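Lab channel / #folding
Pinned by the channel admin:
"Please post every new chain as: sequence first, then the structure tokens as a reply. Keep commentary short and put observations after the output so the thread stays searchable."

First post following the new format, from NK:
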Amino acid sequence: MSNKVSAILLAAGLSTRMRVDKLLLEYNGKTFLEHSIHLLTDLPVYERIVVTTDIRRKQINHPHTIKLCINQHPEHGQSTSIKLGVEAATGTHYLFLVADQPLLIKDDILPLLNTADSNPEKIIFPIIDSEPNSPTIFPGSFKEDLIKLCGDNGGRVIRDENKELWHTVNPDKPGNFSDIDSAENYARLSGGRFS
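Reply from TO:
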């Protein structure tokens, strides 16, 4: 990889829609957070950063290869996590991962990294059911824009304002990109009931 990709896992959300800490829900014997940490450590990237809360930090058995950033104000929205991650990053590109996609594996992410390598000025993301999805890779030229985000505005705001820079990827296994954001989603994932 010629790009120096800083992979940033956003794991500080408050899970208000599910009324439980969904990152501590389990799938195949691991929490969503553990699945995300495993994916992060498996990726061939320049550096790995996790943005999480002080409470969740105790749930993370992270190797020394991961830089941990604590979001003291997750209630102020996802923008606070993005800012912390970008400010901690030293790479040329930012790969933003979310922690509620427990089916993702390295082979799902490699096409995004390879596409960014051959299109270093583009915003790279997968298309699922004809819609943009996560994860997303931004070139470093968007650093200031990402830092200036406010409230619960994530990177999609910047992505959607720069459609001329889009370069999309159609994944081989689109189902792996499903995000679990409701009790119904989790029940389907786990094959059981959500309580």
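NK: The chain has a mean pLDDT of 90.
TO: also worth noting, The longest strand covers residues 5-11.
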